[in-house]
Amino acid sequence: MEELTFKASEVGTTPDLHKQKTCRKGCIIAETLLIVEAAKGILSKVLSLVANEASLAWGFKGELKKLDKRLNMIQALLSDAESMQLTLSAVKTWLKSLKAVAYDADTVLDEFSYELLRRQVAVRDRIEYKVRDLFSPSNNPLLFRLKMAHKIKAINLSLDAIYKDANAIGLKPVDLINSSAGAGHQQVLVTHPGIANTPASSKASYPRVRTLFLYCDLPNNMLANFTRLRALVLTNHAMEELPNSIGKLKHLRYLDISETSVKTLPVSINKLYNLQTLRVMYLTGVPEKFGNLINLRHFIFDDDEYGLWTARPCTIDGIGQMTCLQTLPCFVVSRDKGCQIEDLGGLNNLKGELKIFGLEDVVTTEAAKNANLLKKSRINALQFYWSGEEEEESNEVVPIEENTDEHVLEGLTPHSNLKRLKIQNFRGKNFSSWMMMPSQSSEVLRNLVDIELIYCQTSEQIPTLGHLACLKFIQIDGLYNLKRIGSEFYGHNAEVATGSGRDVSAGGAMFPALRKLTLLNLPGLEEWFEAVHPSPSVKVFPCLDVLKLTRIPKLSMVPSHFPAVKDLTICGINDAAALQKMSSKLTTLTFLLMISVEGSDLQLLMEELLGKNISLKQ
Description:
Layout: H1 14-52, H2 61-82, H3 88-97, H4 99-124, H5 141-168, E1 188-191, H6 200-203, E2 211-214, E3 231-236, E4 254-260, E5 277-280, E6 298-301, H7 302-305, E7 330-332, E8 352-357, H8 365-369, E9 379-385, H9 405-411, E10 420-424, H10 433-436, H11 438-444, E11 450-454, E12 473-477, E13 484-485, H12 487-490, E14 509-510, E15 516-520, E16 527-528, E17 539-540, E18 546-550, E19 567-573, H13 580-583, E20 591-597, H14 602-612, H15 614-617
Parallel strand pairs: 1-2, 2-3, 3-4, 4-5, 5-6, 7-8, 8-9, 9-10, 10-11, 11-12, 12-15, 13-16, 14-17, 15-18, 18-19, 19-20
Helix pairs in contact: 1-2, 1-3, 1-4, 2-5, 4-5
């Protein structure tokens, strides 16, 4: 922040001058407070790294202990600097002078962290270093320790000088780590076309840049200049590939290439052990050993967010090793090692939504159970996809009793925190027990808000859902073998409880929270029965606002219990008489759309609907 300055001609009365001076002093105080708080944050991080990486520091523990001591002294001095009892400008200058040292200390200790992650990957992959690699700093532990010892010694010498400066201005035991923004240490760089022609004086600051927004072509080897980069955002739709030099950004935490045309990632990206967030638009492939990104927390597909997928996403090799993952929009199952359903088992930090594709490649119930969805309490939305195509012939022998979608779905029991569920192209006759049996679904699906069953063509029943207290949206689409919807749909059973914990026979409601019900593409459905309940006080669909019945040509019977429906769409029904029972009690409609409804009773049906629903006339 620049200091405020005033010309004599701009200052009027003495009170005005006093106000200006007060304002200037206030700005300096505010800026200094910000610097102090930032210093505390970086200092805390560095001290934590010193403690955590001590085991890696064999060979220079002495220098590391000195660094720890100096940093603790600086932390003590920060309180004195914050008290503002001394000359503000002197404190501010001293704080800024610490910036470079703090910045360097943070970077060096970050290299510790990177080396630790690299070694974890190396041990896991059983990498054996060859003689010709002995003098490679990236592979030889002795050379790495010598390099780090030299860097830490230089930092300690700088801290000694800064500590003397603190004493000179009257600070008591302080040493500081400054914010990562400030004079001489550029934090954020936004570049536009023409960066390749940037003056050498500006390019000299590249090693200090931590955040880079690039809105132009990426010149060859340009990234090698940004040795301390933490965040990189590339915006250029003409860019189709990342340079291999991306793998040299060992401090990189955040990489966003969602505004590019990059569809595959270079092998060198596997070396970004510190990477925590990777944002892409769409990928057709990732390199082998992509699981080396063991620190990755968020893997985000923007085309998934915007619903732009035109094909099934790619498999992710080694996904099971990325145990820090919290955001993973989709997982594609294959029978290849590293991409099997079991590889989801250890990803217990996953949260939000997860789409699982390729479930036709899961061949046993046990394999599905090993995905461990039941224990993933932070996943609130699941989508299960089987291929819509016929399976290709395989020479692999699979036990017949296990090679069914029914058994696989049974093993994919979710945690009870689930709110949204979508199942597509499931080929079993019956859904799983955790969906069909009220005694199980009352627990597993107790928080379910939205369910979609899409093109489950061989399914002959729909799940029991009427007892679910939170359920608001149902879509049943493409269940070609479904012929009837009976009492099992409503959940009228002695063991079924409503959301209030009461049996429906004691006076509750069926589908107590449902707002929208869509039945679509059901060519075999003939009968939709009334709910059977022992008490007239039991309400059915008490909150249902929207009902859509589309392309159900054989439908001959529809129930009458729709006390609150306002929006009704009926399309592709061959017998208008099937709707008479429903129309006889409908009085709340405000919108009606009827298309391709046939039958001799159509005129009578329309007259009845218009006569009983006054809002339709308006």
